[in-house]
């Protein structure tokens, strides 16, 4: 028994998250020299891979679609903490950080994760098959809360600029959270079968058929290590963010690029997990991750930021600009046409990835 415990503790998926959190504690609040930034970046990458491993262990234990919720919600909760922390210390530059990060998360998940999953699934099996009823409902919810929280502030007149009044922000926060919770209830209880993986042959997969699920103890251990890994990921991302901001300023790039980089770092675990699910012909699981992450990014972030604005100084800029609105509208149209048939080929995946590329290019060169 002692040898088994030592072997388990020596496994990299246990050691790396612990090292990442230790590095986070040692470097928190300090100016990091370049060698330490490189080391933190390496530990950040290792923590991402460890988070993916533990999320898959938990997902295997609880089954779909509960497994997809584990990683999406865990990442989003810590993403909120990161945004609030940076807003507290960022001054005027951070007034639009929540908007930039949330919008980047929506574009990365609805075009990057979704497009990559479809491309990988269709490239291996000619077509990627998924349930259009569940995926369509998820996409409609993302569209609704994204429009409510990120588009309407640019058109309201109660406050100058792209911001809500306190009452409007409170309404958007409550509505976003209520829609997210309603979706979770539909996904996990009333219509759970809409979100179960479907193979290209049309077979619904209720559980992994060739592997015994991990024990309850192993699953609980992975839950704990998943949280540790995610704390390391986002904490180290904050630690290297001054270097990112300096690089952005030195390159003459817009401040919005910082939000894009933060979203890319935070969503790395979900990106890897979604791609691996698509490789195993579990495209529905990949889409659950992509759209669930987009929904959680808005449905949990906006309410948390609304509460944080009670003590945070300065305005909260939420409304998107014209270019961003066009990209969001194009994402909605293309996403709808992709999802309705319930089947996609490499072309649809390539179109979504092209949209992501356009977003990244225009973020750097508006």
What is the CATH H-level superfamily?
NCX, central ion-binding region
Overall form: globular
Radius of gyration: 20 Å
Derived structural class = mainly alpha
CATH architecture: Up-down Bundle
What is the H-and-E element order? HHHHHEHHHHHHHHEH
Would you kindly provide a written description of the structure presented here, covering whatever features stand out?
The structure is a single chain. It is built from 14 helices and 2 strands. It is mostly helical. It has one domain (2-364): Up-down Bundle (A middle domain of Talin 1). Helix 2 crosses helix 8 (216-250). The radius of gyration is 20 Å and the shape is globular. The model has no long low-confidence stretch (mean pLDDT 82). Its main location: membrane. The chain crosses the membrane at residues 9-29, 35-54, 66-90, 102-123, 135-155, 167-186, 218-237, 257-275, 287-311, 317-339, 346-364.
Structural key phrases:
366 residues, NaCa_Exmemb, sodium:proton antiporter activity, transmembrane helix, potassium:proton antiporter activity
What's the short story on this structure?
It is a multi-pass membrane protein. This protein is mostly helical and 366 residues long.
Record the SSE blueprint.
Blueprint: H1 2-10, H2 12-27, H3 34-62, H4 66-90, H5 97-125, E1 128-129, H6 132-151, H7 166-190, H8 216-250, H9 256-266, H10 268-279, H11 283-299, H12 301-308, H13 322-339, E2 343-344, H14 346-364
